[in-house]
Specification:
Elements lengths: L2 H21 L4 H11 L4 H25 L5 H22 L12 H17 L15 H22 L4 H11 L4 H25 L5 H22 L4 H22 L1
Amino acid sequence: MSSTTLVALIIIGLVTGVVTGLTGSSGVMIVVPLVNMLLGIPIHESIGISLIVNVIAPIAISYTYFKNGNIDVRVGVWIALGSIFGAQIGAFFADQIPETGLGGSFGIFIILMGILICIKGFRGKKLESTKPVLEFKTEKRKNMAIFMLGFAIGIISGVFGAGGGGMILLILVFVLNFPIRVAIGTSSLLMAITSFSGALGYFIHGNIRLVPGLVMGSGAALSGVVSARFANRVNEDILSIAVGVVFFMLGTLMILIA
C-alpha cells in the first residue's frame, strides 16, 4: 500500500466517522463511491470495506451514546436478531447484481429521509406527543414485528453495504417515535451488529479487503467519537435539522456520482 493510498484511506475514514457519529447511519455513501472511484477498488470489494468500517466505528460511537443514556437495548435486540439473518440473504443477492446496479441507487431514499428528519426538527415539540405508527396489543406481537423490520433492514444492508443505519434510524424515529438522540445511539449499535453479519457474508464470497477496512475504520472511530459527543450535547431539534441536511447532501452526492 502506497503512502498516498494510506493517507486517502485515513481521510475518507475521518469524514465517514463524522457522518456516522452525528447521524447514526452508515458511511457507505462516502466510502463506496470514493474507494471505488479514487482508489479503483471494484464495487463489491468497496462495499465489503464499507461493512468493515461500519463494524469498527459504530462500536466506539455507540459507547459514547450509551454513556449518555441514549440507547434502547430492548428494542435493539429484536432488530439486531432480524438484521443478522437478513444481511446474509442480502450479501448473497449483492453478488448476483451487476456493479452498475449498486453505484448510486440509494441516493433518492437518503434525500427523502433527510427531508423528513429536517421537517421533524423544524416542527420541534409539536411531534413529541405523536403516537408510534405501530401499536400492538401484546409484547410478543410487537417483538415479532420489530424482528421482521430488522430482517428487512438486514437484506438492505447486505445488498448495499449500508449497515442498515439509515433504515434503522428511519424506523426508530418515524415508526417507533424514538427521540432523535436515542434513535441515533441505538442505530449505531445495531449497525455494528448488522454490518458484522454482512461483512461475514462478503468474506464468504471473497469480497473483503481487510487492511483498507481496518485503516479507514480506525480513522472513522476517532472522528466518530468526537461528533457523537457533540450530538449528545446539542439541542435535539437542531440535531434533527443537522442530521436531515447531512442526509440530503449525501443523497445528492450519491446521485451525482452514480
